[in-house]
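Q: Okay, next protein. This is Glycosyl transferase family 2 from Ichthyenterobacterium magnum. I've checked the sequence twice, so it should be correct. Can you predict the 3D structure?
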Amino acid sequence: MEPKISIIVPIYNVENYLVKCIDSIINQSYKNLEIILVDDESPDNCGKICDDYKLKDDRIVVIHQKNKGLSGARNSGLNIATGDYIAFVDSDDWVDLNMYDTMIKIAKKYQLDMIECGITESDIEKNNTVEHAKIKIENTWQTLKRVLKTSQFSACTKLFKKSIIDDSRFLLNKTSEDIYFLFENISKMNKLGYFDYPFYYYRPNPEGITKSPYNLKRFNDSITACLFVKEKVMSLISYEKDLSQVEKNRELTTILSSFVLKELMYHYKMLNYYPKLDQNYIHRKRLKKLINENYFKSKTHSSNLKLAKSLPIVSFEIIIKLNKLKHRIFRTKHFS
């Protein structure tokens, strides 16, 4: 018997997109699916759409619940999932019709604990074909390097073996829930894979959390998640004195430091773009300290990072203000 895949779809206020999402799942070329639709007290017609689909397809399970947010909805799905593998799809996105057939075949062939595919924005044309896509079989070390370089932490591009994540749940009330979920579980995995074809279609949502106005909750959640990643990765580093291991440690810590600095710099610039969020410089002082602690010499560092390290906070704020003025005058986009 073919292994069953449980696909968990948290649903809230996506009436205009939900049909496309569900259709892309029920029409998968791989048929042994359990499709768990979690209506998270959606204020529109999403609940009815879910119930209508349940009448058409007996693989669909519908949960109607009081609003718990994205993580709470996913957790409700995890609590009842019966599949051998677990997948997640956000309800305003959709997936290629051959996504799960391809990924389960790779997972079975190489006995993987997790297989990941690429992701693309819904309005971006794919540059490659599935026939030319490559499979990369990785150990934990190699996967860590790849995801830190790409910052691709989304649970939706991954197919997990259920036995690996069975005791894990998504953290509530966090905007970086996927980061915590991935790094809590990756140390349990021995063999992982990456298929470099974008099977997952991400729909940029102007009302989504990453597109919402910058705020201190987003700042605090992101920095906390960033430091959590640093702590988890450092705990996985082996301190054997073997020369090859020393070189591996150096490579991974460099990649990790680059990731941390990139995250810190983004928020350092954003707080200088929106200084009213930090009028007493409390958060920028903290970020400045963290940047100095994580800084390492490299020719690849951006000029902004070098300035952030060397200049006083007020001087860097002036540079950002001038940059902001330039973008307003020439009507160009500032960083996002």
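A: Here is a summary of the prediction. The radius of gyration is 22 Å. The CA atoms of residues 107 and 280 lie 52 Å apart.
Q: Noted. On to the next one.
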